[in-house]
C-alpha cells in the first residue's frame, strides 16, 4: 500500500464504502496533492462498485435534506451567537427531530479521515508533527527547523549536501551560514536556496509561500529564473506561475511560533482553513457568500474553540458543533 492510498480493495460493500468516504474527505482537504488526485482516478476507474459508492457519498453530501437539517438545527444557549464564551465541556447542539441520522452520516465522513490523514505524509518522513503539535529539531549542520502543526520533512545532510524537502505543512528555518554548501528547501512547487538566513516555507493546496525574516534567499519554480527575496519579502509559487515579491511584516509569517495567526482582510474560507490546521476533524462553511467574507485580526491557535467563538461574536455567522470532529459554519 502506498502512503497516499486507502487500504486495498475488498469484495465487501462496507470496505468499498469506507474507501469512498476516505477519498471524498481527502479530495476536499486543502492539502490534497496532485499524486493523490491521480491515485483517486485509478481507484475510481478500477471497479464499477467504486464509482457507485463514491456517487452515493457525493449525492448524500449534496442532498437538500441534509442542508435543510442544518437550517433546522438550533444552537443551545451555551453557544448562541450573542453569548459570552463558556469553558464548560457540556456545550451541545439541540437537533431538530429526524436530523440525527443525517448528522450521524455526516460525522461518518469525518471520522475515517482522522485515522487516515496523519499517515499520509508521516509514514516516510524523517521529522513529523501531529495536529496541534509544534516542535524544533536541530540538523547535523547546526541549522534548526521548527515544524508547525501537521508538518512533515525529509532531510539529506550527507556528503556536504544540505537539502530539505517539505512534504507537508509549514516550517521555520534558521540556517547556519556555510558559503561552500548552500542550504536548499523544496516545497511542493517552490525551490529555495540560501547560505544562512531565517525564513518560513508554507505549503498549501495550490501554492507554496516563502517568507523571509532576515537575510537573503533565492526562490524559483522548477529552479528556473530565481527571484531574490530580502527581509520582510514573501512570494507565492504555484504549479503554473511564480508570483510577484510582496512586502509584509515578517511577524505575520512567524506569528504561529508564538501561538497565534494574523489576517488582514482575508476571505473567511482561508481563515477557517488555517485554523483547521491546528485541530482534528473538519470545519465546513455552508455557502460561498460566507466563504468570501473578509476577516482581519489575530487569533489564538492554542485554543481553536475559543477562536471559533471569537469569530462567532464578531461576524454574522453561527457555529454548529455536531460532534467534536465536525463543525459547520452557517
UniProtKB/TrEMBL annotation:
InterPro entries attached to this UniProt entry: FecR, FecR_N, Ferrdict_sens_TM
Domain called FecR protein: residue spans: 126-218
Domain of life: Bacteria
Gene3D superfamilies xref list: 2.60.120.1440, 3.55.50.30
Domain FecR N-terminal span(s) in chain numbering: 18-59
PANTHER family xref list: PERIPLASMIC SIGNAL SENSOR AND SIGMA FACTOR ACTIVATOR FECR-RELATED, PROTEIN FECR
Protein name per the record: FecR family protein
